[in-house]
Amino acid sequence: MGNNQRISSRYDALKENQDHLKKIMYLIRRLIQAGELYTKELDRNYQVSVPQLLCLLTLHENGSLPPSQIARNMMVGSSTMTGIIDRLEQKGLVKRVRNSPDRRMITISLTEAGNKLARNAPPLIRQDIIDGLKRLPKSEIEKIINGLEMFVDLIDVQELEVEQSN
After folding, report:
1. Residue 103: its pLDDT value, please?
2. What is the pLDDT of residues 140-155, one digit of tens each?
3. DSSP code of 125?
4. How much is the pLDDT for 52?
5. Hey, is 145 helix, strand or coil?
6. Which of 16, 25, 107, 144 is 20 to 30 Å from 7 at the Cα level?
7. 129: closest CA among 143, 118, 119, 144?
8. Whose CA is closest to 110, among 75, 61, 40, 74?
9. In terms of Cα–Cα distance, which of 36, 95, 106, 102 is closest to 68?
10. What distance in Å separates the CA atoms of residue 128 and residue 149, rounded to the nearest whole number?
11. Are residues 113 and 89 in contact, defined by beta-carbon separation less than 8 angstroms?
């Protein structure tokens, strides 16, 4: 293979790689936009965001929990969890309950309104995604899972360490 052919071959491979990268970037942007649109829909219809809804569902399934445990279940940091709880408390959907004599230990509980919303909660992802996945054969769902796992491994997403309260 001559020098010009090697250069041409490398250029073609680089061009193909750039085309793949552009396609991946485009698809990631579409996923992010779909998530943002669903969050806006949830906010408009239920006055909660996806993370807030996840918090409500976590409490509904597990009962009262300390913020650190909710954060671990949701895979968010403690400061993010505090903001979510603050907003849910302002909306009257959760309450902080002080359980220890020194009042430092708190748990988060659903209010009646929070419990009602959790019982009648919309799905955490768009219904059309759920419906679409139900129509796919198991082999296609496994391909999606494998692709997503590969992508997560590729971008080196580490397990989130959440502060533990004593």
Report:
1. 66
2. 999 999 999 888 888 7
3. S
4. 95
5. helix
6. 25
7. 144
8. 61
9. 106
10. 22
11. no
Is pLDDT at 160 greater than 50 in this prediction?
no
The Cα–Cα gap between 19 and 128 comes to: 29
pTM recorded for the entire structure: 0.73
- Which has the closest alpha carbon to 84: 39, 54, 105, 44? 54
Count of all residues that appear for the chain in the document: 166
Instruction: State pLDDT tens for residues 46-88.
Output: 999 999 999 999 999 999 999 999 999 998 998 999 999 999 9
Distance CA 22, CA 63 (A): 45
- Which residues, listed in sequence order, are joined to residue 151 by a DSSP beta bridge? none
Dist. CA 109–CA 114, nearest whole Å: 9
